[in-house]
Amino acid sequence: MTEKLTMAAALNRALRDAMRADDTVVMFGEDVGPLGGVFRITDGLTAEFGDQRCFDTPLAESGILGMAIGMAMNGMRPVVEMQFDAFAYPAFEQVVSHAAKMRNRTRGKLTVPIVIRIPYAGGIGGVEHHCDSSEAYYAHTPGLHVVAPSDPADAYGLLRHAIASDDPVVFLEPKKLYFARAEADLTAPVPPIGTAVIRRPGTDATLIAYGPAVPVALEAAEAAAQEGRSLQVVDVRSIVPFDDDTVCDAVRSTGRAVVVAEAAGFGSVSAEVVARVTERCFHWLHAPIRRVTGFDIPYPPPKLEHFHLPSVDRVLDAVDDLQWEDA
Amino acid sequence: MTRDAALLLPSTEPVTLIDPDGHPVPVGQDMPDPQALLHAYAALIAARRLNDQAGALVRQGRLAVYPSSHGQEACQVACVQVLDDGDWLFPTYRDTAAIVARGVDPVQALTLLRGDWHNGYDPAATRVAPQATPLATHLLHAVGVAHAARLRGEPTVVMATCGDGATSEGDFHEALNFAAVFRTPVVFFVQNNHYAISVPLDRQTAAPSLAHKGVGYGIPGERVDGNDVAALLSVLGAAVDRARSGDGPQLIEAHTYRVQAHTNADDPGRYRSADEVTPWLAKDPIMRLETFLRGRGLLDDDTIAAYVEQASLVAERMRTGLAGEPETDYRDLFAHVYAEPTPQLLDQQALVADEVSRD
């Protein structure tokens, strides 16, 4: 049964359904109680489940993460909200030294099945410290899963997978996609964490994107089609574990690729994708893989962010650079 | 819980029940019963022996490093003796003696310092969290464990230890604050041994005492003589009882001293004088309890000999269990990163397997 809903509503539904299905799932963070979160993702949860299942904490991100880890060590499945990407940094040590390593340190005797929800990335006119693309920090840490949905149906399904996972999951929610409506069938299963999907078939070149860059890639593919060029779009979805098979099969099928990501390019997930695909697909490639990423600058002020964000035109220009004259 | 600041403040001096010469101190608090003191005495002998044996194993190259609790053994044994089976202990790297006093096999407890894995015992089965080497981060985990237990209506109390240096960390503050706001049954037990490696207490804090920090969170603080196991049993026992009965978290600061180096790799001559250390040797926790118990007719040479014999069994277990090279398996490196290894980890494990097969 499909319905038209926003990603915010889909995420709220996922939390509600997970909490109904499993008493050990608890939700906490800053302003997630009666207010329902600054983006209203937890709207109504305290009313339905009570303030022992969905509750506000003191304003301290390391405290939130650390308490979640302890609760997970003792039989719970906490979901925590970091209010904004850049406000999650006080919790960094708890994420990388404890959530990520507890299973390993104890050879599986203790596990940390927590979900760290982070509204992330830009494109919403946010002031400084509200728009970081912080995925590389987490993706670089063994022991964490890192996922980013790009539409409501996937947001629902991925969040259900994340809550069910026995490993810590960094769940990156693209803020600029929160309130875009799309048709979705929330009862339909979505592929598990660790799986990329082809969002649009194409034969000339492959666009590889995740999170907020996926709609940009799809729009670019639509525009290219008007000009007679067939672009395939791969949605990575799961940054860690990375689905080498799906991504590399896609690139081999076209022989050309552009990676699109909002984060700064240097030392980034997009760089990792290029390296992995090149290592595996070199003999299928007709041109070096190009990247369209954010610049290597602190996230810009609202009136300047349009210069920074990957745009359809920038993606199409990169596609034009894929050495077609040699074909 | 009270918000009356006066009721949250610690006593003006650390609580002492037996003075360094072994004499009872007339205060309002009850002396623990003889059985509890004898149990503590036996545990002190075992803890001292464990510290000595571990130091010897470092010198023999069997352990990479050992942060000794020599001189702090009263804290080590008391914080465990006041717990029930269902309670949790959240120890630091200097609390190996407490972990063993809790019943963990000493060889498993020393896995971290031997280096064959990070944590060698089963934290879920023993209710002893992995030893924390980062400072104060584990205090928040203690709050989480206690909060989960409380949500389920279980009577669990969590004993979370740290040192004086750790009270400067942000996570110490966040842990006490969260515990107080959620009223979680955690006893924060600060072993103030006056040094964070080389940095003395007066560079950590300008507070009247570390126990005074509790008032800022709405947590009662108390100070106790950290070399007086009777006072520790009394103060920590009362704190555990209050936490278990729903009074929320408690902060206990034990005044003790790190008479040895931070670890074998440290050189305390660079930052403190022998003159500073010597007075503390006279405050040793074992001698004062022994004098007290002998004076009461509760302890004789035969009993002491029996306790020493028990302790020697622990040392023997350490020597034999830590003799020779530990067995390691490279597959452990990849098996416990995630619930299921990723395809990439399986590839990396295959690479090592290939290298091993060619050796």
Automatic annotation (TrEMBL), chain A:
Protein name as annotated: Pyruvate dehydrogenase E1 component, beta subunit
A Pfam match: Transketolase_C
UniProt KW keywords: Oxidoreductase, Pyruvate, Thiamine pyrophosphate
Keyword field contains Phosphoprotein: no
Gene3D superfamilies: 3.40.50.920, 3.40.50.970
Alphabetized InterPro entries for the sequence: THDP-binding, Transketo_C/PFOR_II, Transketolase-like_Pyr-bd, Transketolase_C
UniProt key word Hydrolase: no
Cofactors that this protein relies on: thiamine diphosphate
Organism: Actinoplanes couchii
CDD domains assigned to the protein according to its UniProt record, in alphabetical order: TPP_PYR_E1-PDHc-beta_like (cd07036)
Domain Transketolase-like pyrimidine-binding: 5-180
Lineage per the UniProt record: Bacteria, Bacillati, Actinomycetota, Actinomycetes, Micromonosporales
UniProtKB/TrEMBL annotation, chain B:
UniProtKB keywords: Oxidoreductase, Pyruvate, Thiamine pyrophosphate
SUPFAM superfamilies recorded: Thiamin diphosphate-binding fold (THDP-binding)
InterPro entries per UniProt: Alpha-ketoacid_DH_E1_comp (IPR050771), DH_E1 (IPR001017), THDP-binding (IPR029061)
Name of the top EC class for this enzyme: oxidoreductase
Keyword field contains Oxidoreductase: yes
Enzymatic reactions: N(6)-[(R)-lipoyl]-L-lysyl-[protein] + 3-methyl-2-oxobutanoate + H(+) = N(6)-[(R)-S(8)-2-methylpropanoyldihydrolipoyl]-L-lysyl-[protein] + CO2
Cofactor: thiamine diphosphate
EC numbers: 1.2.4.4
Source species, domain of life: Bacteria
Coiled-coil boundaries: none
Entry annotated with the keyword Oxidoreductase: yes
Family (UniProt): Belongs to the BCKDHA family.
Entry function: The branched-chain alpha-keto dehydrogenase complex catalyzes the overall conversion of alpha-keto acids to acyl-CoA and CO(2). It contains multiple copies of three enzymatic components: branched-chain alpha-keto acid decarboxylase (E1), lipoamide acyltransferase (E2) and lipoamide dehydrogenase (E3).
Protein name per Swiss-Prot or TrEMBL: 2-oxoisovalerate dehydrogenase subunit alpha
